[in-house]
Amino acid sequence: MASKKIITAFLLLQIGFSQEINLNNDSKDPVLSPILKSLIFPGWGEYALGNKKRGKVFAVTESFIIISILGSYSKANTFKSNYEAYAAQHAGVSILGKNRQYWVDIGNYLSIDQFNEEHLRWRDYNALYQQNDNWSWHWDNDENRKSFEKMRIKADTWKLRGSFLIGGMVLNHIVSAIDSLYLFRISKIKDTNIIPSYSSYLDHYNLSLNFYF
To answer: Cα–Cα distance between 20 and 86 in angstroms, integer?
Structure first.
């Protein structure tokens, strides 16, 4: 859910920055502004403005984050496949059509009977599972249940890392776009003057520097 919100916010920012366009002097066709370029791919805008060193930093960071995201989700999927197969072998679980809560529950209870009995005592009737082959489970021993739970937690941890990395990737796009905006604005400054001024009144003296762009 958090990663979906981050991606939605990123898309909204992308639409907003898409209004930032330049016009070629030799053509009426609009071209992408450096800000939008950096929002699409970090470092692109810096390269377009002639600042290759800063552009390289953002580009390398983006590549590292993307590789890390792919690695995190690959690890998560590997652990998920392993714990599903493990549960099918040692608890007789039917793995098709199960949500995350089901896998959490079977890691905390030895059997569907134990789970349902405890939730009946709590009067948590909505949490009960139907007594059939689709939802039933029964671990052959408690050690295997604990081993399964460790694998499930590892899968969730790697998936959570992937979500955080997606947030980092979005942040890298935004920071690069802001950096390109800064570089673009200072590139438009044609002249800078620094004029010192001095004034005195009675026993008070004032020295100041005035900057003119």
So the answer is: 53
To which residue do tokens 């009977």 refer?
A: 113
Residue 18's pLDDT band (cuts 50, 70, 90):
very low
E strands, the chain, where? 21-23, 30-32, 193-201, 204-212
User: How wide is the angle at C-alpha 199 spanned by C-alphas 194 and 205, nearest 5°?
Assistant: 110
Angstrom CA distances, 53 to 43, 48, 136, 189, 192, stand at 9, 12, 59, 21, 25
Q: Which pair of structure tokens corresponds to residue 96? A: 């098709």
pTM: 0.73
Instruction: Please write the tens of the pLDDT for every residue from 106-136.
Output: 999 999 999 999 999 999 999 999 999 999 9
**CA–CA dist 148, 86 (Å, integer):** 7
**Residues whose CB falls within 8 Å of the CB of residue 192, separated by 6 or more in sequence, listed in order:** 211, 212, 213
